[in-house]
Amino acid sequence: MRLLITLAACVAFSAPTLAADTDSAAVQAAIDAVLKSSKVPGIGAVVIRDGQVTGLAAGGVRRTDRPGQITTHDPWVIASNTKPMTAVMILRLVEQKRLSLDAPLSAMWPELAAGARPEYRAITLRQMLAHTTGLPHDQHDVVKVMDSDFGSAAPLPALRLAYLKLALGEAPVAPAGKEFDYSNTGYILAAAIAEHATGLTYEVLMQREVFAPLGLSSVRVGLPPQDGNHGHIDGKPTAQMVEVPPAMNPAGGVSLTLSAWAAFCIDQLNGAKGHGKLLTAADYALMQSPLPATGSGLDWGYDKNFFTWQGPVLQHGGSDDGWRSIAILFPETGNALLVDANEGERTGGDAADRAVLHVLLPLVTKPLAGK
User: Fold this and answer.
1) What is the mean pLDDT of the chain?
2) 110 CB neighbour count, 10 Å cutoff
């Protein structure tokens, strides 16, 4: 899910290396201090200044049940920080005239719309990416539907479609277009529409439209390998079934190295200054500007300031039962902080992320006057 953050087949290139290793020691020190005072197994963090990585570090263990220290080359699940990436993929297909942001579901996919509740037949991709469809957060029995009822061996597009046929039969939580109601289902629906329009899976589309153009070879659309960096609940490695089901990848299924995550965020920062690689200037602005109905973009939360720190700021939080991630971007300066913990909220993953964030904020922004 996107959190309102509180303080108390690829091209064979790699993500950018450190522009200047000026902040890595500070990042490592912050991580080490938080690990000593918490039960979180591992934390990774990145500092971006003026559109370049200036600090990157990780600490702790990949899994508490076997040896293996985390390194900066390990993949991390970013959970709902996947959603801005999914939004980019959809917008690229719109730019290619393969999709329309404002066509109703009934025009994009008549067969699916015919079985949906009438309230959903006119919803649009713009509303799906903005969380204004009125769709609930998830279908009420999402894990059972994704992992059990339709079988893990089924193709992922078929699983997504089966899920959506049920989800589109549930009552809306608000009228479409009227208010922000965070919805994983809306992002799964947007991805399924892209699959329907192109004949390609979401996983292939993401590699082709997002990661390959950025030269990233370390991105998985799905969880990391079982023996790699792993999510935890109460300090114990999760059973993978309790994490993001693969059919929900569009809402939160990307895992990648810290430097690859930074490369995507740097492209967003560059796009704010008119020289991103993935989208037109208008579409970067659409993603990053507050919409009248929501105060958020597609899919960035927007705030004029970050609590008592100078903004404006774009933010997104990611969570599943075994991971917590935070991204905060300052588009006017080209600065950003990214933090991820391989532990769920119950035993401190979110608190650990926020603690690291709090220590590193002075590297990327300034206090508001008088604060």
Assistant:
1) 90
2) 11
